[in-house]
Amino acid sequence: DLVSRVAGESVVEHTLRALHVEGQFTDPDLFDELLVLTGDNGTAYVKNDSTVTAVDAATWAPKLTVPGGTPLEPLDGDGVAVRDELGIIHSYDGTGAEVETRALPQMDPGTDWKYSLGGWLGVVSAQLVLVADAAVGLAAQSFAVPQGNLQNQGRPYDRREDFRKYAQALLDRPDPAQGRTQDCLKLSLMVYKAGQVSKGSTSTTVSTLLNGLTEFSSITPLSVIRRWTTSDPKYRAGAPPAPKQFQQDGFAEIFRDPTPDNNQVRHAAAFLYIGYWYGAVNGLITASLHEIVDPDGTPADVRLGLAAAVLGNAFVFHRNSRTLADGVWIFICGEASVLDLK
């Protein structure tokens, strides 16, 4: 069970199970229990079966532990507000001392209380209500909520949107030295991200890359001479026909097209998919046909297609998105060591 923290161009993986083994937590199934991450004090609040533990998000060292429940809001000085099983909110300061207890009305299903506007905001009987900080009880004013709930807390998770936002952030990220971060580094990080949002499914990982980084939703070795199905534009980032696309900065020299702004990220994503589903040999055949049929095809495209297909085919067997990301980083970007995810 891992929680990954992205900072700049690096990723730090924290192993929750390791904390369990070391005796910090008693529940080994903690992947979905990381409920609050704060930006101001760098503290993560982790729900256990009987406690809530505040840990330093940089070092993963525990800071304090308070009685269990659902962590709702970070408070000043590493404190936290926790809702227990009876719906009572307990507020703890940075030493773990309880400073306030308050009972709140029963929330509508799929929602929870949020501290804002000087009190606790929540949805009760399809009404947005405020429990003022100074007293317990509903505020005089409430607002109808015909659909949804507070901050869309009940909206289902969408891996496609998660990946698109991540890819778009990489596409938009400037690099002080080159004007943008190297595209091959972005590709490696997006391969790793695709594995995370796919929760270990290898087929979903390559499909996420194809749909998010190309205009294709699925392709076969014959797609270069026949029509293909198109991906949903609202889940793409940096793919045709978008005016701003990924390019080929950072790719090994043998994989760079003569045209500097060519989108080799798209090309690699497509052939990772081809290699996964149809094998490396078919990847080579497809890449060669692509060069013949496509007037923009080049020998660099053939070489990149083969390299990506080999990596995609290997992914069928090792089933590890981190290993796949390392493979892209070493064999396609031309780096000498594995990807630094610190």
Can you tell me about this structure?
The chain is an alpha+beta fold. It is 32% helix and 22% strand. The chain is built from seven helices and 16 strands. The protein has helices at 16-21, 159-172, 183-197, 202-213, 264-293, 299-318, 321-332; strands at 2-7, 10-15, 34-37, 43-47, 51-56, 62-67, 70-74, 80-83, 88-92, 98-103, 114-116, 119-124, 127-132, 143-144, 216-218, 229-230. It has a four-stranded antiparallel sheet with strand order 3-4-5-6, with no helix packed on it. A four-stranded antiparallel sheet has the order 7-8-9-10, with no helix packed on it. Strands 11-12-13-14 form a four-stranded antiparallel sheet, with no helix packed on it. A hairpin with a 5-residue loop joins strand 9 and strand 10 (98-103). Helix 4 (202-213) packs across helix 5. The two termini are 17 Å apart. Residues 16-37, 134-142, 145-150 and 176-180 have low confidence and may be disordered.
Sum this structure up briefly.
The chain has 342 residues and is of the alpha+beta class. The chain has seven helices and 16 strands.
Features:
single chain; 342 residues; alpha+beta; four-stranded antiparallel sheet
